[in-house]
C-alpha cells in the first residue's frame, strides 16, 4: 500500500529533503584528489549533527538480514554500485564517486545522492554519469497523477539501454516519509502502464544505478558494499519526489544542486529555493 501524505507530512518532507540536498552542497568543495572517503563522511556527519540538527539515517541502519551500517553516509567509488562504506580509501584524479545522504529531521527522512568527479574524468566516465543523470530526470518527468510506476522504469530503461549501459535490478527507488524505506518499490526498468497508478500525495525516490558493463553485481564481505561483477564503472543519482495534482515536485532541492537537463521544461519545485 502506497501512503498518501498529509499536508503536514509534505511540509516536514520538504524540510528534511532540502537539508539532505544541502549536505551535498556543503561537501562539494571537499571532494578532491587526496581526501579519503572517511574524511568526507566525517565532515558530512559533523555538519548534519552540529550545524543542521539532523540525524544521519544510515548510521546503525539495520534492515532484516543486514549488520548495522557503521557510517553516516554511503560513498560509492568507481565500480562500487551502492552502499560503499566510508573508510581509508583515498580519492584520486579520475575517480567517480556517488555520495548518498539521508537525514532525519523532526521524524521525516530526506534521501538524495549525486555523482562527483574527482579531478578530471575520462570521457567514458563523464558519459556514464551524464547518461545516468538524464535517466533519473526522464524518470522524474513521468511523474503525474494517472501515470504508473512502470512508466518511470520504462523511461529510464529505454534511455540507458540506448546508450549501451545496463541497469542494476537488485536495488530500486522506494517510498519514503516517516520511514527510510516504504512501499512502493520504484523499479528502474519496466513496461509502460504497468504497476501502481500514481496519485497526488505519494512520495518516493527515483535512484537509477547504471553500469558501463553488465548488470550483474556482487556483495563484498563487509555485508554492505555492492560492486559490479565485471568491475565496470557504475553511476547513480537520486532525488525524492512528490506527486502533485499536475505533475511532480522535487523535494531534494538546494541552491547548489546541478541544473535539470534542458528537456525538463516545467518548474521543479513550488517553493523558492531561497525560502
Ligand atoms: N540511501 C540509500 C537509498 O537510497 C540507502 C542506504 S542504506 C545504508 O535507499 F544503510 F547503506 F545507508
Ligand atoms: Co533511496
Ligand atoms: Co539514498
UniProtKB/TrEMBL annotation:
A divalent metal cation 2 binds at residues 111, 174, 207, 238. Gene3D superfamilies: Creatinase/methionine aminopeptidase superfamily. One of its GO terms (biological process) is proteolysis. GO terms for cellular component: cytosol. It comes from the Bacteria. Substrate binds at residues 83, 181. Its cofactor is Co(2+); Zn(2+); Mn(2+); Fe(2+). Keywords: Aminopeptidase, Hydrolase, Metal-binding, Protease. Monomer. This is Methionine aminopeptidase.
